[in-house]
Amino acid sequence: MQYDAIIIGGGPGGTAAARILAAGGKKVAVIEEKHWGGTCLNCGCIPTKLLLGAVTPKSQLHALARQRLAGGEIVVDFAALRSRVSRFLKGSSQVLAKSLTEAGIDLRNGRGVCVGQGLVSFQADGTEERLQADAIILAGGSRNAVFSGMAPDDEAVLDSTGALALADVPESLIIVGAGAIGLELGDFYAALGTKVTMVEAAPHIAPSEDPDIAAELERAITKAGRTCISGVKAVSLATRDGQARLELEDGRVLTAQKALVAIGRAPNTKDLDCEKAGCARDRRGFVVVDAALQAATTVYAVGDINGRTLLAHAAEHQGTYVARRLLGEETGPYVPGPVPACIYGGVEVMRVGETAKALAAAGRRVSVSAVPLSLNAIAQAGGNASGLVKVVWDGEDMAGIAAVGHGVSHLVTVAQLLLAGRYTPERLHEVMFAHPTLDEIVPMAIRAPRKPVAAQ
Questions:
Q1: Strand pairing of 265-267 and 142-144?
Q2: For residue 456, is pLDDT > 70?
Q3: Average pLDDT in the 269-283 region?
Q4: Could you tell me which of 90, 42, 43, 41 has the C-alpha nearest to residue 313?
Q5: Whether the Cβ atoms of residue 127 and residue 67 lie closer than 8 Å to each other
Q6: Which residues have a Cβ under 8 Å from the Cβ of 381 and sit 6 or more positions away?
Q7: Which residues are registered as beta bridge partners of 119?
Q8: How far is 10 from 286, CA to CA, in rounded Å?
């Protein structure tokens, strides 16, 4: 069968591209092997946020209780919560598939494999069909990375999918990897009473963030009862006598009822055969793309599979660009602008744009302006006003905005708009910030005195 475009992968990147192409009059097929909506909807971002949403009020109540302003107890029904999450995910995936079908897109449940230029093998239920297209978009996403000696065994050692599917709350949990996935799941289970130990090989938790942001986050979660071990590599992790046993490089041995391996993502390219379509992969398996996200003649790769930015909204943004390019509405290179990212939980991290450490390492003239979150009335009203908001400057240009504290994920869009608009302290009068809001802490940080940052 002939199509204008075949998209392999039904996650945010693939479905965004499909909708735009179909609206532009193109005949489109989307091939999805597992579940419509991809990892984000089914076993990643969305279920994690639904879990965190159920326990976040507990952290706010505890903050108010420490100030002797409120008391009581919030009890989460874990079984009921798991049931609600399951129903929501199933329903959302079905609604997504239905909406794509109604948009005139041909949905195919099965496996897509490249077999030549403009040619895809669709495999389902033991059968194979050859599909042809003028363009192919690879949007297969990523999976949990597996390292030697650290492989999940679905007993005591789990990946993030397994941790989201636990039927009971574990008494203790070791989390190897203190990036967004590990921190968020650690926050959830700690709120339910699990003894959580975070282990990170990098010098500090949240390794993609600046040290001051990470230090503030570590202070908060340590105060809440979690243990953080950083700067030490894990040697081995396995189930022993029904328990997870973790051996560290310094000789320490940790045990817990369960362990979560959250040390990165790997692209879903192993059996894609994208080389047959003219594509190349790097040493980690990601599809190599050019400035227009093109991997070969008539082949594009968007989202996690190209390794540029492993975030669902980045995949959607890239998918939109490629679709517009195929429709002739985009002619220049792909320019994402400042990319937003958040870590959610009782204490959150938000960042848009560059970190100070990355710019300093590149030899740039870096400075930072910052203000404590305690200056904001809305932050104070919630009972926990610890944290900060900072702006990273590259010379006289604003290059990044970051924050750590309760509820700071809500600052991500205003930060992105101010950064993308290249606002300066002198231009801030062009925007009227409502008072009192959490948002108004951002212009305060922009106007704050700057301190130079040296390369570490």
A1: antiparallel
A2: no
A3: 96
A4: 41
A5: no
A6: none
A7: 116, 132
A8: 18
d(CA 6, CA 382): 49
Q: Which helix (H) or strand (E) is 260 found in, with range?
A: strand 258-261
Q: Examine residue 436 and say whether the peptide bond preceding it is cis (omega within 30 degrees of 0).
A: yes
Fold of 2-44+81-144+266-326: FAD/NAD(P)-binding domain (3.50.50)
CA 399, distance to chain mean position in Å, is 21
- This prediction's pTM: 0.95
* Pairwise CA distance, residues 251 & 249, whole Å: 5
Task: Pick one of 3.30.390.30, 2.60.120.290, 3.20.20.10, 3.30.565.10 as the CATH number of 340-453.
Answer: 3.30.390.30
Q: Which residues of 240-263 are buried (b: 16+ CB within 10 A; e: fewer)?
A: eeebbbbebeeeeebebbbbbbbb
Catalytic residue numbers, as ranges: 435
Q: How far apart are CA 14 and CA 113, in angstroms?
A: 15
Alpha helices of 126-279 — where are they, by DSSP H?
160-164, 180-191, 211-223
One-letter identity of residue 2: Q
For 33-86, the pLDDT digits (tens) are 999 999 999 999 999 999 999 999 998 888 888 888 888 888 999 999 999 999
Q: What are phi and psi of 20, to 5 degrees?
A: -70, -40
Q: What is the DSSP letter of 196?
A: E
Cα 430 to Cα 417: distance, rounded to the nearest angstrom = 13
CA torsion, points 316, 318, 324, 327, in degrees to nearest 10? -110
DSSP 3-state of 195: strand
- For the chain, give percent helix, strand, coil, nearest 5: 35, 30, 35
Rounded to whole angstroms, how far apart are CA atoms 141 and 2?
Answer: 24
Amino acid at the residue 218: E
Query: Would you say how long the chain is, in residues?
Result: 456
Which CATH topology does 157-263 take? Answer: FAD/NAD(P)-binding domain (3.50.50)
- For residue 342, give every residue at least 6 positions away whose Cβ sits within 8 Å of its Cβ, in sequence order, or none: 180, 348, 349, 350, 351, 409, 412
Q: Taking phi first (over 0 means left), then psi (-120 to 50 degrees means alpha), and beta for anything else, what does residue 90 get?
A: alpha
Delimit the domains of the chain by residue range.
2-44+81-144+266-326, 157-263, 340-453
Q: What is the pLDDT of residues 152-209, one digit of tens each?
A: 998 999 999 999 999 999 999 999 999 999 999 999 999 999 999 999 999 999 999 9
